[in-house]
Amino acid sequence: MIVGFPGETAQDFEELCQFVEAARFDRLGVFSYSDEDTSASYHLDGKVDGRTIYNRKRRLMGLQRKIAQARNRQLIGTETSILVEGLSKETDLLWEGRMPTQAPEIDGVTFINDFEGAEPQPGEIRRLRITEAHDYDLVGTLLASDTESVPIAMPVPLVQLKPAPNPQIPIHVL
């Protein structure tokens, strides 16, 4: 979501906050409007000052942090599949992984602080029992596997592009 778009009023922002509280998003990115002279919005009236934009972004992210933390707490004790990525970037005492719902470099991570059975290997998919929840990150125990880990399959392209029969006619893929 973008906060501070030209013309955004205090009432608009309050409505946005109410929407976020009602929707209870799993994950939400909040971005500050940036006035770029190459965009159409550059010429709009009703610019929102930088301090207001900053405060609105902080408030909206604060609302989302509480929602994310509550949703993460609900996951404690559950089991999920996880892609083991390797040793943690923060400490070599933990491993890191991602659930299918966690995008790399965007969403939080899942830390592995203990494991049953074989030592984790980067690239394997295993089951994890979630034991702790933080604002955006989770912590859990990697479970022993009855079978070998599942290898990662390469994604199949959704659309295969072929050269245009007539290069003068552009092709638009939706």
Topology at a glance:
Layout: E1 2-3, H1 10-23, E2 31-32, H2 50-73, E3 79-87, E4 95-98, E5 110-115, E6 125-133, E7 138-142
Parallel strand pairs: 1-2, 5-7
Antiparallel strand pairs: 3-4, 3-6, 4-5, 6-7
Helix pairs in contact: 1-2
Q: Quick recap of the structure?
A:
The chain has helices at 10-23, 50-73; strands at residues 2-3, 31-32, 79-87, 95-98, 110-115, 125-133, 138-142.
Order of helices and strands: EHEHEEEEE
CATH class assignment of the largest domain? Alpha Beta
Distance between the termini: 23 Å
Mean of pLDDT: 87
Helices, by number, come to: 2
Looking at the overall shape, the CATH architecture of the largest domain is 2-Layer Sandwich
Q: What is CATH's topology name of the largest domain?
A: Transcription Regulator spoIIAA
Radius of gyration: 22 Å
Structural class: alpha/beta
Low-confidence stretches: 148-154
Number of domains: 2
Instruction: Tell me what portion of residues adopts beta-strand conformation.
Output: 15-25%
Largest β sheet strand count, sense and barrel closure: 5 strands, mixed, barrel
- In helices, the fraction of residues equals 10-25%
Give the overall shape: elongated
